[in-house]
Amino acid sequence: MSKERRREELLDAARRVFAEKGFHEAKVGDIARAASVAKGTVYLYFPDKRSIFSELIDHLFLRLSGAILRVDTDGDVINQVKHNIRAVLGVLLDDPDSMRILFAHAGGVDPTFSEKIDAFYDGLKQMLAESLEEGQGLGIVADGDPRLYAAFTLGALKELLTEVTQNSEPRTREALVEAVYGLLESGYLRQ
Amino acid sequence: MSKERRREELLDAARRVFAEKGFHEAKVGDIARAASVAKGTVYLYFPDKRSIFSELIDHLFLRLSGAILRVDTDGDVINQVKHNIRAVLGVLLDDPDSMRILFAHAGGVDPTFSEKIDAFYDGLKQMLAESLEEGQGLGIVADGDPRLYAAFTLGALKELLTEVTQNSEPRTREALVEAVYGLLESGYLRQ
Amino acid sequence: MSKERRREELLDAARRVFAEKGFHEAKVGDIARAASVAKGTVYLYFPDKRSIFSELIDHLFLRLSGAILRVDTDGDVINQVKHNIRAVLGVLLDDPDSMRILFAHAGGVDPTFSEKIDAFYDGLKQMLAESLEEGQGLGIVADGDPRLYAAFTLGALKELLTEVTQNSEPRTREALVEAVYGLLESGYLRQ
Amino acid sequence: MSKERRREELLDAARRVFAEKGFHEAKVGDIARAASVAKGTVYLYFPDKRSIFSELIDHLFLRLSGAILRVDTDGDVINQVKHNIRAVLGVLLDDPDSMRILFAHAGGVDPTFSEKIDAFYDGLKQMLAESLEEGQGLGIVADGDPRLYAAFTLGALKELLTEVTQNSEPRTREALVEAVYGLLESGYLRQ
DNA sequence: TATGAATGAGGGTTCATTCAT
DNA sequence: CATGAATGAACCCTCATTCAT
């Protein structure tokens, strides 16, 4: 087996184990067993346990960052927004283990790691808030604190994803996209 | 010092320590030191470290559950919704350490614990979804999957709280309540 | 048992174990067993294995440094020289385990540690060489490189000590002192 | 490359690595890298790491044993003594890596190995002591314990070598021979 | 013969928990 | 009740050695 292939297998195994048990409950031996190798083998490919976890998160962040496009307010805003919702849902629903690691376990590693996670979310929120502010100038975003709107959006997406993964009710992605968009566009309370 | 008082002091100390370091990085010795007692004393009041953490979370859950009122669709729905938003914000902003434990660290303890957290959120979502379904019958909630709306709401609130605590920008609670309500009522995107 | 007492016991046990097995072959468990405590207890008194070894060597160095007096060439040189020989022999013969650690095992720990040992010997040689140089000025030390004389002296003492400890032949310390002095004063080859 | 040649290369590499790092800090991988072969190759030529170290020491011992001639008291004793001093200095100064392994690292391997080293020195001392005893019969060696004289001589030589290698001051070998001889013949203290 | 990926025993260290005082 | 020294299970990581290619 090629070195690169074995490395991928270890990452796959680690992803499954971390998703199930979290960072601290996942023992290096668990990862090795899940990959059907000896414990020592893990250390031929990674310097330590933490770096495996870190690589999984980094990779997920990269995919998310790559999938999201900064909204260009000169173009079709609605479809760009929907594209981004679709992109985020796509990345995370296609890799529910990574998603679970990020949402359920990434915070419990250690303070340094938490900062990294926070920084990523902060970056997203920042980018989103800037787009929203631009949108306010164009009158396509309601008045109000764009950081709050950004936080709403992120939170709604996160929890939606958690809900969708935990709950067995099957829903097409497009329906989810529309549901999120609907929320952003008109909420759900009616008088 | 009374037994009950000492127990409270230990919980207070544990809350601070867990909030700062998370479950695994917080050592029993840290908690003892924060409470100015010896390590052994902790075990006179709690059977183990996990149960302290658990009690903090349980207590927070109780306060949250107690603060939230099931919406009575016969009454003033708007104000009941706002009341609930206000209540959740109140409980969590008044006790930022508990909030941090819940949002940043509760997931990293172990799989069993994660289930407990998930179950609580699920209960909230369930209750909220039921109210929303009722509301749909009365025409005051838009058509669509009430579980999704419930997830949106929860997620938006969570992230809002994270944002508010992390970000230094000071905002009155009432402004936050109105902002959340505004989102639920009409979103923020305008064409 | 007092904390200080337990610490001494651990040092005593470590001294015996290190003397017998050397740094690497001596396991922390060996030291714990020799002191009749659990392995974890060792770490209540020392941060790590190396620091125990280091403390033993440091202590020995202190005792040696304290025992040796710089020779004052205004006084009775012969007796001062004999005093120093006697002092070094005394310190090391009274603590053969430490001696063995120093002579047989201290070099095998790691490069940093070896430097420390070298530095100590170098300091001794330096001090001795300076005294000898002074002695040359007074005509009581033969011409020649004082560093070499210092090295001879140290080496002769070291090996004498090794010999005396390994060999069962019992000899009074005073006889040893006289023998060393004799060597320094007139060698042993006769024509 | 011939089997024998490769074996020599591995020994050369090992000598360098052991001299620099000592037995425990020198990893088999270090040796392989220094010899520009793969780790597994080392094991085609040697059964284990210890045996490489052992062979280096054995070889050095052989060269030393071969260089030293038992003093024939019928002949020119002075020059035979000088010859031996010259021979030991020659062997060790020509191969400073082996010397460093012997003096600085051979003690730290394990108890069994330490015994081997001790045994070698003991053999040397024994041989030397016997010659000295013979010399005492002929009146060319002072009265006194010949084992002690042997120990002195060995120790002085060892430390001289250490000094010469560590210190940058350049000295001709003949000067060193004369210095050692001078010590043996008349010490360095004068009244 | 040479390779280097894989193995797995073993060791240092941590820390939740216990218990004698 | 309170203490804090002691315990020892458990884990991460290293590296000498093996073996399939």
- Count all strands of chain A and give the number: 0
Q: Level of helix content of chain A?
A: over 70%
Largest pleated sheet of chain A: none
Shape of chain A: elongated
Could you please describe the fold and organization of this structure?
The structure is a homotetramer of 191-residue chains. By secondary structure, chain A is mainly α. The first copy, chain A, folds into two domains: 1-46, Homeodomain-like (Arc Repressor Mutant, subunit A, Orthogonal Bundle); 49-186, Tetracycline Repressor, domain 2. Chain A contains nine helices and no strands. In chain A, α1 (3-25) packs parallel to α6. Chain A starts with a helix and ends in a 5-residue tail after the last helix. Chains in contact: A-B, C-D. Chains C and D meet through α1, α6, α7, α8 and α9 of C and α1, α6, α7, α8 and α9 of D. The first copy, chain A, binds a DNA duplex (21 and 21 nucleotides) through α3.
Task: Name the descriptors.
Tetracycline Repressor, domain 2, DNA-binding, 76% helix, Arc Repressor Mutant, subunit A, 191 residues, homotetramer, mainly alpha, 0% strand
Write the layout of secondary structure elements.
The structure is a homotetramer of 191-residue chains.
Chain A: H1 3-25, H2 28-34, H3 39-45, H4 49-67, H5 77-93, H6 96-105, H7 111-138, H8 146-166, H9 173-186
The first copy, chain A, binds a DNA duplex (21 and 21 nucleotides) through residues 1, 3, 6, 27-29, 37-44, 48-49.
